[in-house]
Amino acid sequence: MPPLIIIAKIMLITVALTFASFQDLRTREIDDKVWIYTVPVGALLTVYEALTTQGYPLVLAGLSVVLTAVIALGIFYTGLFGGADAKALIALAAALPLPPYQNFASPFYPLTVLGNGLILSLLLIPACLSWNFIFAIKTKGKNGALFEGIRATRAQKFVAILTGVRVKPATAGLVHFNLMERVSADGEHVLKFFHKVEEREGSKLIDPRSRAVWVTPAIPMIVFFLAGFLLSFAVGDIIFQAVALVLGVV
User: Fold this and answer.
1) Are 222 and 84 within 8 A, CB to CB?
2) d(C-alpha 229, C-alpha 217), whole Å
3) What pLDDT is recorded for position 40?
C-alpha cells in the first residue's frame, strides 16, 4: 500500500479533475477556485513528502514541474489548449511531479498523463466514422447528405469524416459541438479544421438555410486528462506500452 501522503495527493487530483471535467462538460467553463485551492495544497503536500522522505529526488521533481509548466504554457499560448487545461497540468505537476508508483517508464508523471489523454482523445475518430456512416445511410439520395452544398477537396472530405460529424443546425448550436463549417467571402460553404481555443468558444454563426452542418465534438481536453490520469494506474504510460509492444519489449 502506498504511503498516506501519496494517497492524499492522488485523491486531491482525482477530486479536482473530476469536478473540473463536470463543470467543463456542462458549461464550458471551470471555476478558477479549483486551481487556486489545488495548486498550493498539492505543492504543500509535495514539499512535506520531500522533507519527510529519505533520498527524495528533489532535482528530478523540480525538473518535472518546470518542464510541465513550460509545455502547458506553450500549448496554451499557441491556442491549442485552453487556460484551464494548462492550469490542470500545472496542478498535477505541483501535486504529483513524480510517478506515485515505481512501475512508470517516465519520471515525469504529468507528461505521462498528458500523453495518455492525447491518445485517448483519438478514440473520437472511430466514433466520428460510425456517426457519419449512419448519417450517410439515412440521408442517401436525400437532401442534407454528407457533403451537400460543401466546397471541399477529397482530402478535406476525408479529414472531415475522421474528425467531425454532420448534424442538424439545432444540434450544432449545442455547447458540445464546435463548428467545422464556415461560409466563405464568396458565399460558399467550406470546411475549417484548425481553430484556436478562443475561436472554438466564440459565437456560432450557422447559416439558417443549412439542412445540416459539419461540426467537431467539443469534449473538453480536461476530460481526457482525467481519463488518462485514472488509466495510468492500470496501464501506466500508454505511449510507452504501445511502443514496447511493437518492439517486443513486453
Assistant:
1) yes
2) 21
3) 96
**Model's pTM, two decimal places?**
0.80
Domains of the chain: 4-122+221-247 (1.20.120.1220), 124-217 (no CATH)
Q: Can you give the pLDDT at residue 165?
A: 87
Q: Where are the beta strands (DSSP E) in the chain?
A: 150-151, 165-167, 177-179, 181-183, 189-191, 213-217
The secondary structure of residue 116, as a DSSP letter, is: H
Dist. CA 121–CA 144, nearest whole Å? 28
* Low-confidence residues in the chain, pLDDT < 50: 198-203
Measured CA to CA, the distance from residue 182 to residue 179 in angstroms comes to 8
**108: CB partners within 8 A, 6+ apart:** 63, 64, 67, 68, 97
